[in-house]
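Most newcomers find our protein records easier to grasp once they have seen one. Nothing more is needed to start thinking about how sequence determines fold. Here is such a record, shown just as it appears in the course material:
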Amino acid sequence: MNLKQTIEEIVEKHLPDSSHFVVDVQIVEKGNKKSLHILIDADNGINIDACAVVSRAVGEEIEAKELMDTAYVMEVSSPGVDFPLSSRRQYEKNIGRNLKVTLEEGQVTEGKLTEVDQRAIQLMVKKKEKVKRLLKNQSAYLLTK
């Protein structure tokens, strides 16, 4: 198991409850400095207190297990609207909200997310339902209109 996977498991262990989930873990190295960026979310939204609790617990476990070989900075936050939706769970929690979806072929569509299943999302685009496949190279962002 690599360092990223190990840290993801540690984060999952320290989430407040089953409504919380890991969105992404990034380890960025610049010279001899490392930054650890952890994104977490929850089915009903996340607050700063949950991020602080997770940050403290994860930091303590990383130190206790001596997982980082150099000094590092750790940031635990929620994904903002500028971060693409990346998991089915994120899509599900945003049903009813407007999305901007870029498909693998480069086609861009905006619409209200109405349904999510294992393979596709459904958008209401100008009062017509359209099914869009959830492809690996697709990106979807929340619209703040």
User: Anything to note?
Assistant: The CA atoms of residues 106 and 138 lie 9 Å apart. The mean pLDDT is 88. The chain is about 25% helix and 40% strand. Residues 88-142 form a domain with the SH3 type barrels. fold (CATH 2.30.30.100).
